Backbone:
């Protein structure tokens, strides 16, 4: 199965088309471009870098995402209508979601909260086995696509769950987690500490991706340089277009380019602006600075009503409109296939290659 992840699926593709709940989010894109976008997504579906549905379901477990659900912006019909073939399910706890003393620590409470998030995520996979399947590797990513299911990666988990031991990291990996977010961890706040370097080496050995979302530029650049595997930023936009603190600077984009990493553009009005055109501008800027092999999509859906989204991109069914817009801007289909699927597939595969090399050196 070594090359399975590089082969387009030949079984029935994940359907792409209008969503019954997203139909009101119209955007003037030529029908021909939408048809081309749907055809492309049927072969190269979206591997979305960030969805917070796990947190939402933890607090509102009554949502049934197997059917159109107006109470949340993510459900299986809209994921399929948008051509989503893989999803990274965030296990982070939103800032301000609990009492101040609980938000800042202690470490054992952070670990407990994270384990509960993992439990909810795994329950989600069990509840919808015909649509979602847990993915642990690049082969799993391709296999899910070939079977018409949505590959589901668990993570990131917060880096502050790790204090002076790597045991928690290895335990999370054993539970299926494949991403770690250093932001807010004491070992990665002002650059990497000695323990931080140990964390980077261990994530490389385990084939876990480091998600630099929210990291200060200095720390992000240092982690990208220290990691032998690609790093990602799972949901962000270009600081050069909007100086929001959650957006990535050109300096970091260049560091990602040097490290063969991946910056995934979000659909968050505060970060991108309030239109599909604005999101497309951010995608184009990331591609221009980091290169076509280092840009992806991480919308950040998964919320209940109230989160502001760009017009036309209020739920996952909007992906074909964005792809159609980029086609109209002259993007070649080869670059679009990297944007939607190829780049995310590559970083997962490269992390595995790095892990195998590390294990080979240990046994040599």
Residues:
């Amino acid at each position: 199965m070594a090359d399975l992840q590089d082969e387009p699926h030949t079984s029935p593709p994940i359907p792409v088309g209008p969503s019954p709940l997203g139909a009101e989010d119209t955007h003037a894109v030529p029908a021909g471009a939408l048809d081309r976008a749907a055809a492309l997504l049927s072969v190269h579906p979206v591997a979305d870098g960030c969805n917070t549905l796990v947190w939402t379901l933890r607090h509102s477990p009554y949502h049934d995402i197997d059917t159109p659900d107006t109470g949340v912006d993510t459900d299986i019909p809209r994921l399929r209508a948008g051509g989503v073939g893989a999803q990274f399910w965030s296990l982070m706890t939103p800032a301000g979601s609990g009492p101040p003393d609980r938000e800042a620590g202690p470490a054992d409470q952070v670990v407990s909260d994270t384990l509960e998030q993992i439990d909810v995520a795994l329950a989600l996979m069990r509840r919808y086995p015909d649509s979602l399947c847990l993915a642990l590797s690049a082969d799993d990513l391709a296999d899910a696509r070939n079977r018409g299911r949505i590959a589901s990666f668990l993570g990131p988990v917060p880096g502050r769950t790790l204090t002076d031991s790597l045991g928690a990291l290895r335990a999370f990996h054993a539970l299926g987690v494949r991403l770690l977010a250093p932001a807010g961890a004491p070992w990665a706040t002002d650059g990497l500490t000695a323990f931080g370097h140990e964390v980077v080496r261990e994530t490389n050995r385990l084939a876990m991706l480091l998600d630099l979302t929210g990291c200060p530029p200095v720390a992000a650049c240092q982690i990208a340089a220290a990691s032998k595997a690609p790093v990602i930023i799972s949901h962000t936009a270009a600081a050069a277009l909007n100086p929001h603190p959650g957006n990535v600077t050109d300096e970091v984009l260049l560091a990602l380019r040097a490290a063969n990493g991946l910056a995934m553009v979000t659909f968050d009005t505060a970060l991108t602006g309030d239109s599909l055109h604005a999101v497309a501008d951010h995608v184009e800027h990331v591609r221009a600075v980091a290169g076509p092999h280092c840009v992806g999509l991480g919308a950040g859906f998964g919320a209940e009503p109230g989160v502001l989204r760009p017009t036309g991109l209020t739920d996952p069914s909007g992906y074909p409109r964005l792809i159609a817009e980029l086609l109209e801007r002259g993007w070649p289909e080869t670059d679009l296939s990297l944007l939607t699927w190829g780049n995310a597939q590559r970083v997962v595969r490269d992390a595995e290659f790095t892990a195998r090399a590390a294990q080979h050196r240990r046994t040599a």
